[in-house]
């Protein structure tokens, strides 16, 4: 009970400076990941999922981004207060990340071997590893993600690889550092469905094998249901609901979560899903009170003015909604 | 081996470009008013002398035959006699071209080296005070003509501070080293004459910097723009997320993709320097080809004009080939697509 969780994000607030003011993108994000846990993070595009992850790793471009408040604790140490040297030790070995678009995440003018090799080299504390050993480890990393002909791959440039291979390379790079926590930002979204499925299965097997903690960002609720222990639902820069995966799917409570569940098309009956009317709000002047209130079918007077606190509605099931105030 | 094929192919393409250029030069020299034979012998020569010369110069034949004769001579380096210097044009070129080439070479090194350095500093500290200083300075550098810098440098460093010489390539009293490359500094080094080398180096500093300022500022601006654009790329975020140290990201993963546009412009700036050095050469009394070319144009010295334009054309083509090779080395995407198209 007293050991701190692997990762704890407390009330994280991030603004982006733009012409004419600040985009208040993250409005107090709270998140916990325990050792070995697989956590899902869902929410529509633009709700701040990637921003949260980049803020955790301190790789947001600052400026324009600005972390204006909150804490990011990794093993109890505040990432936001780390010095460059500590940050470098955190990145890669502590937390590493697979990016959404593998084509953009690989440097186009260096070979796979150079990029993967440097990741391996600098994941050792002193950076002094001999070239032969790096090569062996790089080959090993590529074999683990089931890439054929790793020897040739090391001398290839990203442009010579297919999208699926690039994604595998990105996963190999993220896992080559033996991280304690892996952030996977919509892996395979840019690929076709069958390849995406293969990638997710591969990733799942690898992290289960190594007992790596995971934050999985995805739009595919089926995947969340299959591979995660707990789920966070994000809306417009806040976590609106979190629960163990089974509980959330059986009993979604926040109106937005319910809409999200209903918008999944089903094979039997029902036809096309309704979806949630409206769009994610403008971050320059976000709605007061609950940010979801303009789209909420159950909106009450209080929702328009007061930001709802988090209510505990079951074991590990939390909702930030006045509907559950009693 | 691939590189050799690449160069040969580019050289082959260049031959056609040069042929095109030669047609233009020939056409210009023939559409200009005035009879070249009459111009050569002067207004008072009797008509039969002019007629004889016309026949000798093939001026009676159709234009395409004239072009053929002209081209064959040009290929052998025979551009005829310069009306101004009364010497073989080829001799003039041999004397004046290396001087300008040396100047452009130093200017090019400054443009590339300092421009990329300043651009990198600016991009790394984007929107901080140092970036603003570099941006204002490079803006001034781009909008100020080279001759203004030349005059300012001459006044400040030559006249007031008396740090550096302002006239010519070598101080009086020193003997020129034997001509091997035609570049004074290199020849001095080859001859092992350090005194002459140092003196030649001091002479070249001011004109080279004056000439480099515009390109230097341009290169700094381009490097800054490309780098700050690339800094927002996902691959930089990914490399940071994977624990690669900042100095490796900056010096390796950001620098290489960011150099490509700068190198392309640097090539053009360098080649352009050779032809636009006229005023700087005039101010520093530098015996270069740019000054020679302008003088030839002012006096309608057709033989010299043709030779100067052809030489500069060849320089542009060679520089472009080199730029293509460097860019292909830096960017596998270009290299691979070039190989695929073979």
Stretches with pLDDT under 50, minimum 5 residues of chain B: none
Helix content of chain A: 25-40%
Extract low-pLDDT stretches of chain A.
none
Category by helix and strand content of chain B: mainly alpha
Instruction: Give me the Rg of chain B, rounded.
Output: 24 Å
Number of strands of chain B: 0
Number of structurally distinct domains of chain A: 2
Order of helices and strands of chain B: HHHHHHHHHHHHHHH
Strand content of chain B: under 5%
In one word, what is the shape of chain A? globular
The tally of helices of chain A reads 11
Give the CATH architecture of the largest domain in chain A.
Answer: 3-Layer(aba) Sandwich
Mean pLDDT over all positions of chain A? 83
The CATH superfamily of the largest domain in chain B appears as MetI-like
Please report the first level of CATH classification, the CATH class of the largest domain in chain A. Alpha Beta
What can be said about the biggest beta sheet of chain A? 8 strands, mixed
What would you say this structure looks like, in words?
- The complex is a heterodimer of chains A (326) and B (342).
- With 326 residues, chain A is of the alpha/beta class.
- Chain A folds into two domains: 223 residues, Rossmann fold (3-Layer(aba) Sandwich), CATH 3.40.50.300; 68 residues, no CATH class.
- Chain A contains eleven helices and twelve strands.
- In chain A, the strands form two sheets. In chain A, strands 6-7-8-3-9-10-12-11 form an eight-stranded mixed beta sheet, sandwiched between helices.
- In chain A, a hairpin with a 2-residue loop joins strand 4 and strand 5.
- The radius of gyration of chain A is 21 Å and the shape is globular.
- In chain A, 43% of the residues are buried.
- Chain B is an all-alpha fold and 342 residues long.
- Chain B contains 15 helices and no strands.
- Chain B starts with a helix and ends with a helix.
- The model of chain B has no long low-confidence stretch (mean pLDDT 85).
- The interface between A and B is medium-sized, with 39 and 25 residues.
